[in-house]
Amino acid sequence: MDSSERPVQEWRKQSFDFASDSTKQLITIATGVVTATVLFSKDLDSLSRWLALAAWIVLTISVMSGVAALLIEHEWQSE
Question: What's the pTM value of the predicted model, to 2 decimals?
């Protein structure tokens, strides 16, 4: 690797670090929202429970997508 490739490599590494940190924050927020709504779901009426269930499904997909993104990112960074 010559010296002209180093700034590109550093820029790429910083991009992956930023994406990784952002993904981790979104996973944390989604997990927290699901946990909080599950704890208080007994206070919801029937319609609200169905809406909460739909939100839980979407947030769970979000968490799984975030974990997949972290795994893929790790593989790309290893190259």
Answer: 0.68
Rounded distance between C-alpha atoms, residue 79 and residue 69, angstroms:
16
Q: Residue 36 — very low, low, confident or very high, per pLDDT cuts 50/70/90?
A: confident
C-alpha to C-alpha distance for 55 and 48, rounded to whole angstroms: 10
Query: If you search the block for the tokens 């169905």, which residue do you land on?
Result: 50
Chain mean position to CA 26 = 4
Interatomic CA distance for residues 24 and 16, integer angstroms? 12
Residue 47: C-alpha distances to residues 23, 42, 56, 64, 77 (Å): 31, 12, 14, 26, 45
Angle made by CA atoms 69, 72, 76, in degrees to the nearest 5: 130
Task: Report which DSSP code applies to 1.
Answer: -
Q: Residue 24: which residues within 8 A CB-CB, separation 6 or more?
A: 66, 70
